[in-house]
Design goal:
Helix content: 25-40%
InterPro entries: HIT-like_sf
Low-confidence stretches: 346-351
CATH topology: HIT family, subunit A
Mean pLDDT: 94
Distance between the termini: 42 Å
CATH superfamily: HIT-like
Number of helices: 9
Largest sheet: 10 strands, antiparallel
CATH class: Alpha Beta
Number of domains: 1
Organism: Candidatus Hydrogenisulfobacillus filiaventi
Structural class: alpha+beta
Order of helices and strands: EEEHHEEEHEEHHEEEHEHEHEH
Protein name: Galactose-1-phosphate uridylyltransferase
Radius of gyration: 21 Å
Strand content: 15-25%
Strand order of the largest sheet: 4-5-6-8-7-12-13-11-10-9
CATH architecture: 2-Layer Sandwich
Length: 351
């Protein structure tokens, strides 16, 4: 049975004061995620966004006390127990990882990509991102050795700049890996397992194949990572990067490089589109069954302010109804992003 792409629509007709009270019809389209059924609403609404805020003054103000800058990071951040690493912290090139002072779970870590205190969105390169992705994999493997037999719902998470919820402008990411998954992680794992049990096929492989063949939301590939615009986006737009492995600790170097490459291309595109930050999560499989049924996947959603008054792009629909709204059709988004995934790297992207 092929993947189901479910959508419906409703129309509101009203007397429009901007058109001399003529009847005007606006259509709202409701889409369902093809695996989980999670809804998203696409509004018939003109999208006009203000210029992104300038974070350079905040960066200059915080440079003197930022805990993630090189002159302070080893003296003011926590250290791991010796059971995790005798070195206290994990290091990979310019990237460094340490326990989260305010943890979200029993295994909760913060990683700093580099000593760069402020990184503009369009300056993010694959080479700058990749050590952080590799360091996260080091942590996943260390946890497996330090706590054998423990369930770890591993995710890599990144709020880039305050628009996306970052408390500091210094770029950093967070790892959570506890026995209890987040709601979204649990839904993805269970639905993937269920699809595999029912159909004997991996949903994520079928999704990539169908999206590549249809072309509407297909962006391209970076090594073994397939990139698509989500059919039912959970933000103004949402991009997925689908790998070829079930668990993060088993990703190949080529897959980590492909993820870093795609992040760089998307960051550059988001900057060009006028966004001022993004949220990013990489979900990992957990069990032996997930090696067969799940594929490690990256999800990236740009963030912005909707008005000069600082209106958030999230409201009661997102926070209380658990449903996303957008004014951007995924197919139109894909058409704009697709050139970034041509074989040649995007300008300002990875070298």
């Amino acid at each position: 049975m092929p993947i189901q792409w479910r959508k419906s629509s409703g129309t509101l007709t009203f007397l429009d004061p901007t058109r001399n009270w003529e009847p005007t019809a606006r259509v709202t389209e409701i889409r369902h995620d093809p695996l989980t059924g999670l809804r998203a609403r696409i509004l018939d609404y003109p999208a006009h966004f203000p210029p992104p805020p300038d974070f350079r003054p905040a960066a200059e103000e915080s440079a003197g006390w930022c805990p993630f800058c090189p002159e302070r990071v080893t003296t003011v951040t926590p250290r791991f127990l010796a059971a995790v690493t005798g070195e206290g912290r994990l290091v990979r090139g310019p990237a460094i990882l340490f326990p989260n002072l305010f943890p979200y779970d029993e295994n909760s870590a913060v990683g700093v990509f580099s000593g760069d205190h402020y990184m503009p969105l369009n300056a993010i390169t694959a080479g700058w991102v990749q050590p952080g992705l590799e360091l996260a994999q080091d942590y996943a493997r260390v946890l497996a050795q330090a706590y054998p037999g423990r369930t770890r719902h591993f995710t890599f998470n990144w709020n880039f700049l305050p628009t996306a919820g970052a408390s500091l402008v210094h770029p950093h990411f967070q790892i959570i890996a506890g026995e209890e998954p987040t709601n979204r992680h649990a839904d993805l794992l269970e639905a993937s397992r269920g699809y595999y049990r029912e159909h004997g096929r991996v949903f994520w492989e079928e999704l990539a194949e169908e999206e590549r063949a249809a072309g509407e939301r297909w962006l391209g590939e970076t090594g073994p990572v397939a990139w698509v615009a989500a059919f039912a986006p959970q933000g103004l737009l949402e991009v997925w990067g689908i790998t070829d492995s079930g668990r993060y600790e088993e990703l190949s170097a080529a897959a980590l490089g492909g993820l870093a490459d795609g992040i760089s291309r998307l960051a550059s595109a988001f900057a060009e589109e006028g966004y001022s930050g993004f949220n990013l999560t990489i979900f990992s499989g957990v069990t032996e069954e997930d090696r067969r049924s799940f594929r490690v996947q990256l999800r990236m959603v740009p963030r912005l302010l909707l008005s000069a008054a600082g209106t958030s792009d999230m409201n009661y629909f997102h926070t209380l109804h658990g449903e996303a709204i957008t004014m951007l059709r995924p197919e139109e988004v894909a058409a704009r992003l697709r050139p970034r995934f041509s074989p040649a790297p995007a300008e300002g992207g990875p070298a």
